[in-house]
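cron nightly-structures :: item 1 of 1
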Amino acid sequence: MPLQPTSPETDGTAQPTERLLSTAKLLFCRDGIHATGIDRIIAESGVARMTLYNRFGSKEGLLYAVLEREGEEWRDWFFSAVDAAGRTPAQKLKAVFPVLRSWFEREDYFGCAFINAVAEHDKGETRLRGLTLKHKGAVLEFFGRLAREAGINAPDALAHQIGLLMDGAIVAAMVTRQPAMADHAAAAAGAILDAALPKAA
């Protein structure tokens, strides 16, 4: 599931690395990266300061690890949910925004971890941008594959169109706290898809 599905495991049963990642994941998304200090992560995870520095080197190192983990977990959830929502590639593409709505409806939905992180950091920061582009590239590749399988003539262009609508819906839902932003994006995506799909699709 996406970045905010679980609460930090601070009962001492999880391994220290997992407690650090889980705690930082929630705090970074809910409260902001710059607003979350090392002391708070340590206090809420119940992990020693030296352990954090030994495992991740710094707060930035922990952030990169959180994003790497989040990217993998979010994509696994999203791709599986979209694949399960339709039998044909066209049906799966049309399921993208209903799937996103199920994410937006969560009480612990705080937006995209990657978008939020880039927004908070120096725009010249290359490693963070690289992680974000890697994540976005994997999502676009997924959309492009479905578009090719659906027989769409310009699958990469359509993937970018769906991706832009997705990014807009994610930000709008985060700002407004209205899951229906996914429905508005779905209507726009549906028009694009209906125009692009072969008539027999």
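cron nightly-structures :: done
Residues 59-84 form the longest helix (26 residues).
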